[in-house]
Amino acid sequence: MNKTAFRDGDVISGGLLAALGSYIVLEARAWTYSGPEGPGPGFFPIWYGILMIGLSLFMVISKLMTARGDKGDAYDWRAIGRSLSTWLAFALAVALLKPLGFLLSFALLTFFIVAIVFGRSLLTAAVTAVAVMAGFQITFPVALGVPLPVGLLGF
Amino acid sequence: MDVVNGLLHGFSVALQPANLLWCFVGCFLGTVVGILPGLGPAATVAMLLPLTFNMDPAGGIIMLAGIYYGAKYGGSTTSILLNMPGESSSVVTCIDGYQMARRGRAGAALGIAAIASFVAGTVGVLALTLIAPPIAAFALSFSSPEYFALMSLGLALVVLLSGASLVKGLLSLLVGLWLTTMGTDLFTAQSRFTFGQSQLLGGIEFMIVAIGVFAIAEVLATVEGGVKSQVLPVPRGLRNLLPSWEELKACRFAFLNGSVVGFLVGVLPGAGSSIASFISYGIEKAVSKHPEKFGTGVPEGVAAPEGANNADTGGALVPLLTLGIPGGGTTAIMLSALILWGIRPGPLMMQETPDVFWGLVASMYIGNLVLLLLNLPLVPLFAQILRIPAYVLFPIILGISVVGAYSTSGSLFHIALLAGFGLLGYAMVKLEYPTAPLILGFVLGDAMERALRQSLMMSQGDLSTLVTRPLSASMLVMAALILLTPLLGRLNRWRVRAIAE
Predict the structure, then answer these.
(1) CA dihedral B34, B40, B46, B49 (to 10 degrees)
(2) From the CA of A98, how many Å to the nearest CA of chain B?
(3) pLDDT exceeds 90 at position B186
(4) What is the ipTM for the molecules in this complex?
């Protein structure tokens, strides 16, 4: 594992959190901090926003100060790529819920996971996709009466 | 209602056929979930919670609790047969359990794990039964400042114990607080952090955050590594699963050690069963006459951590049921479930909803027995679950997550948020940000802000009200001391080493 990469991760996430903290404080400043009835809606967010900025900057600075000259290990980007491609496929399946419905979009997701992420044969992927979606249809709408998102095709 | 009458009432609820069925279903699902690496009780409870909305609250919480403690029973099977923990809390069981299995004592190891889980799990519930009523009675004197201080103390403990970096724990908590602030302010109707989206005016559903951060993130993290291990065979027949008399005798102290340590650690918010099992294993090794044999397959090395792991459940329910403060991810989801059913966990819960409180406690005695009966004879059957290919399992988990989220919100917008929280959870795992503080910040943030604002309204904006009341002052001082731990070099090094191990 690359320690530099870890630190980069900490620096980037710290920077993002500092930006989030700044956004929180800026937004909260527009709301009442304190009124005649006590603290307003801006009171709590301002304090945790300030704390977020302080802590994230502390993390970024302390990482930058200790990171010099230390090469360390690297992330396994190939493994991360498997996870991120799974997430992208999942996000795409979610985006396709409206036009295709749950059964079709998740059958495609299952096919992708089996065939691409796990490298199984197309036949295995197709059979798994059909079987899993049949299981969902039987378990949720039929047995439990829980609706699945329906697409433009009516299922 | 005193303890005896309360418990009798609880058994009259838990022994109703429908509740017995839910208890069995919960224990069964929990065992299955515990066996499957990569799917934890928090993720399962989060995914299945929406399906319990129409259930009777007593039946619903009995089932969810069954999943919670059932997963702890099931986790040991994977540790012993696969040398891979089914649950994070079963990590220690791998050390001696897998060695016993390699020496042909898999049956005895599984038997000892089941017996230790039963003994310690029952002791944990007994302690919960006896300790919960006086704590609830004491908490009746709490007002808003005390509740704010108590939540601050609980969150400080969670931050302290959930990860090596206190700063990352705090940042995770603050993100949870921010997420819970989204929506309409109940005091003034001011909309906060809604980005102009009307769907966010009601805030973000807790289930969306919990399913995303736990279930989706767990799938993504497991996909990364894959699951490639050799399952050791399980001997068939009950006789082959029972440990010998000598092995049981060797575990006498381990049963007691696991029960006591597990319960005490369980009561602490944030500590969790992983820490409990490590501590009890360490104690067992320290007092053993043959510490050098630990790691080679000694039965005490299985009994102590498995016992602690299960006694922890009873302890974890003490702050949840008596104070309304969850100590970890799964109990946070159970708190959310109770609130959704219109039940407010806290000092009045056993008076206002005795069916739910005592029904749950009584069902845990029954559940421990159900799990012993399930796990001893049916372990060979459960072990077959380990042969389900990951490529079948992961699409099912993702699908159930979406169905759960959709049945909660009925909105595709919230399912898109679910995908976002899945990525956030995965990023947190990769960057070593603990997820428990985020979840607890989210679940407690609203109540914490309300308690703080009510306290300041009562004192007309005077912050000293938080430190002039002895109880709230002492809890806030403890919270501050906890957060100052990193400045105490030696203590912090011990903390970091304990968490890293």
Answers:
(1) 0
(2) 8
(3) no
(4) 0.91
